[in-house]
Design brief:
Layout lengths: L1 H20 L18 E5 L13 E11 L4 E6 L10 E5 L2 E8 L17 E4 L9 E9 L3 H4 L12 E4 L1
Antiparallel strand pairs: 1-2, 2-7, 3-6, 3-8, 4-5, 5-7
């Protein structure tokens, strides 16, 4: 008898448990949205000229690297530095100056400045990954001018601010 009561109790328990296996469910879904914003990052290498000796112009280069969001149009602008002029720019050693300029082309005929559509460099971003950076060569020249031929010995410096407008 105990055995049959145990079997009956077990059957009732199994029936109750099997009822939970067929429980009802409810579902929903939700949207996922994201956007990509325009962004640019810029870096530049130092432009160091060889020593100017008063007999010939001295050339040098720098590289401006720009990473922008893919398909973002941008312009690279170079200011006039400490000399407050693009015609020509000036490296300084105290009150002394050494004339130079920065160019967009290897022939050093197109001065690089800040006027979009006139003397800046335009390009389009390839993406923000380091490997996607666009390198832009800055061609520099210390001019062999009469003013430079009279410059005293010493180290001359200038700082150029690079702006990427996008």
């Amino acid at each position: 008898m105990r055995h049959s009561q145990f079997l009956t109790a077990s059957a009732v328990l199994l029936a109750a448990l099997s009822g939970t296996a067929g429980a009802a469910t409810a579902t929903t879904s939700f949207a996922v949205n994201a956007s990509v914003a325009n962004n640019c990052l810029v870096s530049a290498t130092t432009l160091t000229f060889a020593a100017y000796d008063g007999t010939a112009a001295v050339d040098g280069t720098s590289t401006v690297s720009v990473r922008c969001t893919k398909n973002t149009a941008y312009n690279v602008k170079l200011d006039d530095g400490n000399g407050n002029s693009l015609a020509p720019r000036k490296l300084a050693q105290g009150a002394n100056a050494l004339e130079y300029n920065l160019y967009r082309d290897a022939g050093r005929s197109q001065v690089w400045g800040e006027t979009i559509g006139t003397d800046t460099v335009a390009d389009t971003g390839n993406g923000m990954a380091l490997i996607s950076a666009n390198p832009h060569t800055v061609y520099g020249r210390v001019l062999n001018s009469a003013a430079n031929q009279d410059a005293p010995v010493g180290s001359y410096t200038d700082t150029i601010n690079v702006t990427v407008e996008y």
